[in-house]
Each structure stands twice: as structure tokens, then as C-alpha cells.
Queue: 3 jobs
Job 1
Amino acid sequence: MLDPLTLFQYDPQIDQRTVHDRVMVITLGSYGDAGSAQAQFDEHLLNTLTHRTIGTFDADQVMDYRGHRPPIDFDRDHYDNYEPPVMTLHEITDKSGSPFLLLTGPEPALQWERVVAAIDRIIDELDVQLVVTAQSVPMPVPHTRPVGLLKVATRSDLLPGNQPSGSFRMSASFLGMMTQRLGESGRDVIGLVARVPQYLAEAEFPDAPIALVRGVNEVANLDVPLGDLEQASRLARGQIDAQVQQSEQLSQMVSALEKQYDTFMADHSLPMSEDQIPNADEIGQAVEDYLASLDTGNDGPNPAGPGPADRGPQTGPADFGNPDHPDQPEDPGEPKD
């Protein structure tokens, strides 16, 4: 392995010996960033809270430019505004005055082991005690129900009451591989994965970053406000509902997903007395069990969704199940690369 110390460089104005942050949040993109959840999450934190740059990774060493081409403008007779990929470590101060780290950027395409080794070194140097990853995946769930979070951890006692999900083999993401490697090194890592409706995978879906903010606050004991995300959620929900109402096909599919979701919840007889109302983990686990029980549906065409964001090539599935059989959503078992 090449020396991981040469992959990351602290900002010249930063003396790393003075930085001691308990939590590091990592949102390096994976699975196409369903619902633009990671992008919105990062933008919200950086636009809402005080922050400074701690350092940057040499992204040029770990990116595959042919696989993920950066944007550039052609202006009549010349090129302009080339945007190289950037992997940046920020220090952010939450609403209560507690600092934490945020590592943002695209998912590394090359030298995964070396990137993890560099992150592990940063964890040591900055006294990080807990790493939290935040990402999203497309799933056959309706937008009219709460966004659930799949939670994973390097130690089960990091997530009290969290129930394990089913087992299956899948294509690895960098965050998944990193979680395993850091766990093998004795690090505490909690992973949060927002479930985004498949038919909104390529659109901005503010409910997903809202779920991630709440999840990060809960597991890391931070105080990040929701701020403008709540207004963005109301506006997006109105636009989505309007477009669904205009399409009989989409209306039938959303209704089918709602029915299956509600039927599953009712069949599991979740307690509803005041002292036994299920918490978010219990509801999320119930949904996870349901999704694992779905039969595999047939691939169908990709009907027009509500306002896909222009974010370049998307790698996550964005179709809306099987339009010929709306009662057969696609199998959520393995996210697509």
C-alpha cells in the first residue's frame, strides 16, 4: 500500500494538535445518492452551521474520471468552470456549541484501503471517538409514509434495541467496506441509511436528509437543527402529490405501496397503548422485515418522476416497480451500483 499519510493534507491554517472532536460524520457518496439525500444533508449543515476547513484529500489519486466525469462548461469557443472532485474534512459547530467533523465528497473509486488507512490516522490525530456514516438507498416504499433508517454498527451495544435485518450478499460500497475495516481496528462506527422511494431516487427528496439529521442527532448526541429542510419537504411533498394525482399509473402504484406498508404494520400488531407506542427503531425494523419478505418483481419502464435533479450519471435504480402489476414492487434486497 502507498503511504496513506500523503493522501490527506491539513489546511495550512490548522494546527491539528488543537483539534479534538468527539464525532466524525462521513457522507462520501455511494449508490448514486438516492433522493440526493447526502448532497442535501451536506449542504444543509454547511449552510446552517458555523464551520471551517480542516483539510482535504488528494482526490486526483482516488477518482476514476472516466467512470464519473466532472462537469465543465463549453462557452462558444472555450471551456470554463471545470469542477474537480473534492474530498474535504470540515469542522462544524452544532447549535449547542459542540464541534464535530464532517467528511464530504464523492465515493473514492480507487485505493479504498489506503483511504481508510488515512481516515483511521485522522481519527487518531483528532481524538475522534465515534464515526457516523450517512447515506441513502432506493427502496419500494411510498413517499407518503415516514422515511425509515436502516442502522448498522461495529458493535451491537452502540445501538441498544436495534434488531438485526436479514442476510444477503451485495456489491460493496466504500462506506460499507470502511465500516468493516474501522471495526476491525476497534473503532466505533454507526451507519445510517435512509430508505428513499424508488420512484424518487433521482429527485431531491428532503424527507431523506431530514431523517438523516434526526438520526445523527440521536446516535451522536448532536444538536443540528432542521431549519429550511422542513419547508423544502412541504414544497416537495406538494409537487410530488400533484404529479402523482395527474398520473393514474403512479397513483395506483403509490396506493399499492401504501396498502402493503399499512397491511404489514397491522399484521405485526404493533402495540398502540400510550406506554407501548413503538419507537423509530421498532417501526424501522418492521418495515425492514416486510421489505425482505417481498417477492421479486419484473423490471418495467421508468415513468416520468417528479423533477429529477440534474446531478450527472445516477447509479441507483429509479424505476417505480412493475407498472403492469402495481401490487408487485421490485425486490429491495440488493442496492444496485
Job 2
Amino acid sequence: MAGDFRLFIKDILTIKAPKKSPLALRMIVLTFAMLCGIYICSICLKQISSRTNIGFLNVQVLQRPCEPHIIEPWEKLYVHYPLPQTFSRAECRCHPVRYFAILSTQRSGSGWFETLLNSHMNISSNGEIFSVKVRRSNISTIVETLDKVYNLDWLTSASKNECTAAVGLKWMLNQGLMQHHEEIVKYFNTKGVSAIFLFRRNLLRRMISILANSYDQDAKLLNGTHKSHVHSPHEAEILARYKPTINTTMLIPNLRQVEEMTAKALENFKSTRHITLYYEDIIKNQTKLIEVQDFLKVPRMDLKSRQVKIHKGSLSQQVENWDDIQKALSGTLYESFLHADYRM
């Protein structure tokens, strides 16, 4: 009996471990699975985000600047792909554009020459922009204006916009060009701007044209309006009726002054890529226009102008004091101006 009692007491004192609840185990497993799921989802989200960024980078690569066409190494400076702010070049975005400037003097045929260039479907020459004084007041305003022109953001009736292949302007030597020539030469050479010099050989004819044009600014012979250039033979005939009187005392000094100015311009801009043309040569030889198109690297086309020449024929019929002019120039370096003639 004593043994049985001890066994009974031992069973009472022995503490048995309780059985684990199945619900608790399930909760632990569920919690662990949720944590694993959250971790896996976070990794997936990071990968998706990374792939999205790569996609954006690929889009940016597609918008990179256009690759230059196959050109000579020396030409690379003169080939541009402008991104205008005022419009989109659309399908012409990767068509190269070349920059130019027509450098000339008043009444040297530059207006007529510019209309010829603008008759080309791929050339935009924006006129005498620096005739407005504020645009040439200092080098900063000059550069700002040039940047706008060459970025295709200077919109005029001559602008070809999207498919322009050559863009430029007409610039007279006395419109800040000579005053700031060092900075402008640097700009041309840095930006890859080609210069087209256009002068007249017969400076006497140029002088007659200047005097007649100056007179019409006040007289306004065409129904009270002044026109520097005309598009009908009738208008040209009316303007040609005026015959100026030339001051023979100042004739040779004036001719020499213009000659020296053009020579100085050629000297100042000799380091730029340039071509030199003369009004008379273009009239006599139309292949000169082909040379210009080749110089600008545009397709060759037949160029046209609606302008009508005002002063034609013999010089003796265009001035009042022809005898005095003959005496003043005979035996001088400028005597050839009395005889040089051409037809248009």
C-alpha cells in the first residue's frame, strides 16, 4: 500500500507540458507568410521602377542630336541642326542648316541679290536686320539678334521654316559691322557663319543710285510713296527721270573712301569662310549664282527676281553734269568708270 501511495503522490507532483494549440501554429505560419510576401513585393516594385527608369533613358537617347551627314572634316563647323523655340522643324529636324551673311554697301545690288537667293526653296535671307539702330547699339544686342536669326526664330516673309537649308541676313558695312568687326569675326568663326561679300565695280553708278534714292526719300515720286526697289518697268521709268548733279570737287575723295572701306572689310574678314562677288559679274554671268549655291551647299536651282532695274543705259543720260564728271575723272584711276557699261 505504501508503494501505491508514493506512486500516486509522484503522479500528482509531475507537471506535464501542455499540448501546443493548432490555432497558434497557424497564426505563426500566416504571419511569416505575410512578411515574406511583403518583402517579395517590395523587391518586385523596385525592379519595375528600375526598368521604368531605363525606359525613360532610352527615350532620351532617341532624342539625341542628329548625326552629321557624311561631310569633309573641315565642313563640320558649318553644319548645324537648330532647335527653334517658335516652331518645330518636324520631319526636317535632322536636315542640316548652314549660316551665312551678305556683307555689302548700300545701292550695290544687295536687295536684288537677296531676292534671287530667297527664290530658292531652301534659302532664307531675312533682309537688312541691322538697319534698326537698337539692334546694333552694342555687341551684346548684335549677338542676341544673330543668335535668334541662326536659330530660325527670326520670322519674316522670307523664312522657309522647317526645311530651311541655309539661313542668313543682309548686313551693310556701316551698320555696326566695321565698328565691331573683331567680335563679329570671332562670332562667325565660332558659330560657323559664311560671309558673302557683294560689291559694285563701277562706284560711279553706285553714287548715282545713292543720290537718286536719297532724292526720292523726300520727293516720293511714286504717288507719294518712297520705294528703293520696284517691280514694274513703269515705276522704274518714273524714278529714272530724276538726274542728279554730282559734286565733282568731292567725287574722287568719295570714290576713294568707298574703295578703301570695301578693301578694309575684306581684310578684316579674311579669316572667315567667304566668297566675294560683284554686281556686274552676276549680271553678265549667271553661272555666278551657281557658285553661290555651291558655296551654301544647297541644291542648284534657277533663281529668279521680280525686281526691275531703275537706272539703265548710258551713264551720260543719268546725270545733269556729265561733262564736268568726265573732266574730273579723265586721266585718273577711276576713268574706267566713265566707259564701263552692261545690259540687264
Job 3
Amino acid sequence: MLLAVAEAGVAVGVPAQIERAVRIEGCRGRRRASLGRAVRFARAQASSCSGDGDEARRAEMRKSLSRSWRTNAQGGAGAPGLTYKDAGVDIDAGAELVRRIAAMTPGIGGFGGLFPFGDSYLVAGTDGVGTKLKLAFDLDIHDTIGIDLVAMSVNDIITSGAKPMFFLDYFATSRLDVDQAEQVIKGIVEGCKQSDCALLGGETAEMPDFYAEGEYDLSGFAVGSVKKDALIDGKNIKVGDQIIGLASSGVHSNGFSLVRRVLARSGATLFDALPGAEATTIGEALLAPTVIYVKQVLDIISKGGVKGIAHITGGGFTDNIPRVFPSGLGAHVKVGVWDVPPIFKWLQKAGGVEEAEMFRTFNMGIGMILVVSPQVAEEIVLTNSNACLLGHVVEGDGVTYGK
């Protein structure tokens, strides 16, 4: 996503989208999973931050996160760990492209594009769902992927403090399946409701022979607005400011090229029970829709003290958090102060993925971070069940991980 922007950040909320979680009912003749079970699982993941969880849980989390797993599909040791680049996605190449575009068009590179409009900025964002679509095709479930589509754009533009106003979609397929498309649009409508923005319309493109039979691609476009004097751009962040994390519902909509490579290596299926959450299938955990943080984040912003927001998408903690910091400042993240959802533990173990790669590819259970003044940090954590004190701002660059 290449967006003209002031270095901004992210926000959070855990809306009713969790109620829609994931439904895997009679998928292509395979076993049926409970929607209620999926809802409970997604709710648990999206409320997994705890500002003062017991020390035994934290110790166990630190222990599990410090491991570098080396397992092959049969569980043996010695197989080389998978990386996002192995799966075909080169984060460094993407960053280099952004750098080159920014050289041609200064201001490009943040989470949302800013356009001056009177005493306000219009803030625009665009994104897709990525190869998470492949799982929707495999499971033949299409009524939640539209929530993901809306989430990826609106969660970007709220990092500037902007309230989303409207959304448009682009739906492209080889041959239009009206029932399938209706399910996709149903999810988009739900996402817009959760974002309190209007669905103005979109484009449906039927392109014979361009996509595989039964498959489609999606893009979304959101526009919001923020008063110029209320813009959140990270410029006032300083050493000692606190970093608040808002829980995700799982993998959200990034890293699925690596997810699918891990699935292939592990020999597991989307219908197998997820280790550590046996009442949930791997497919349910992976297809859980992205949390839309709009209402929650805007509410937190309205109370003051928020200096920067970062949406944790492709690039994970490592690449996204620094995007909101002034030069010379970095983040120290306290590993173990939040519950990492079981799906990430399984992906790390089954794929032999190194810890550093996990934190640069996935959100690890935190979908948004807010950089706030120390005076408001405790109140935010106490009044938001999905929030935790994740770390603090330090001198330096990038992100360091520790206790």
C-alpha cells in the first residue's frame, strides 16, 4: 500500500465482527465445525492482552517465545526454518520500492495518504486481502473475507486520527458466481457497519480465463477526514512515552503466503484441531476476520494523550512500529506481557520459523499499537479489556525485544 502520508500510526477496537468469527459448515463435504466455538475462540484472542496477568503465564510465554523451533513435517529436528521470503514475499524489496517512489513523490510511505481540504485532511487508504483468499476458496466460506477487506483500509487511515467516511470495493473474477459474490459483499457491508462508514459502491469485473474457476480477487478503498489540528503524526513522541498494544483476533490478513507454506510442510489440514486450542480447527483460527479498530481507537483518541498509532500488518512489529517514530527514537517491546494466540505458536513450531521472522511477518496477537503519554497509559489499559502495556519509547532506532 503506497499512500501519501504524514508518519502516522494505528488504533484499536474489538467490535461485533468477532460475532461473525468463522463458519465452517459442511465445507465441500468435510466435517462441520461449530460457529459458536469459533466465535468464542475469536473473542478470546481479541481480548488476550492483560496488563497484569499472572507471573506464571508470563514466564511460560517468555519461555515459548524465546525458542527457535527447528522441526520438519514429521516433527524431526534439523529442517531449515521457513521464512516469508521462502514463501515468495520479499519485505525488503517492498521497502526498497517504497523508498524509490518516495524519492519521486515526497510524502509517500505512511499508513494513509493526506490531502489538504480546508481546515481538514482527507485521509485515503487502499489494500486487498492477499492470499488469505486462498483459504476462503479452500473452505468455500466467503461471508467474512469482506470484513477483512474493509479492515485493512480503515485500520490504516485511523492511524492519522481520521474517521472513515466511505468505502469502495473492486471485485474481479473469471466468471461471475452471483451467490458467491453476494456473500463477499455481505461481509463488506458488515465491515462498513463496524467502521461506521458508507459503502458508496464499487466495480465488478468479469474477466474470462484470467482467474482460476471459482476464484476472485478483491481490493478496497477508504477515505476519511481529520481536522488539521487533530492530526496524529508521531512528531511529538519522546523517550519514556508508553506503547499500548491492542489485541488481534489472530493472523488478520497478512503473512498468508508463509501460512500456506507452513501448512504444506506440516502435512496438517484446515480441519485439524489447533494445538493449544483443541476446540478450534486450524481453518477457523486462520479465517477469523480482522478486527476493525475504528470505534475503539477514535474513542481513545478523543480522551487525549495519543501521539502515534501503527497498524501491525505486513512487516509485523519490526517494520511497522518504527514508521510512526521521529528519527533517533525506537521501541522496546516487553515480550511476555500479552498472550500470543495458539495459531502463532503452531505456525512457528510447524514451520520451524525463527522468532525474529515471526515478529517481522505476523502481528503475534497485537493488531494495533498506540504511543501515548505516560499520564494516560494506565487509564487506557484499565478501560480497554483488549489493551496491554506493550513497552516504551527509547533512544535509538528500530525495535528491541526483551523483558
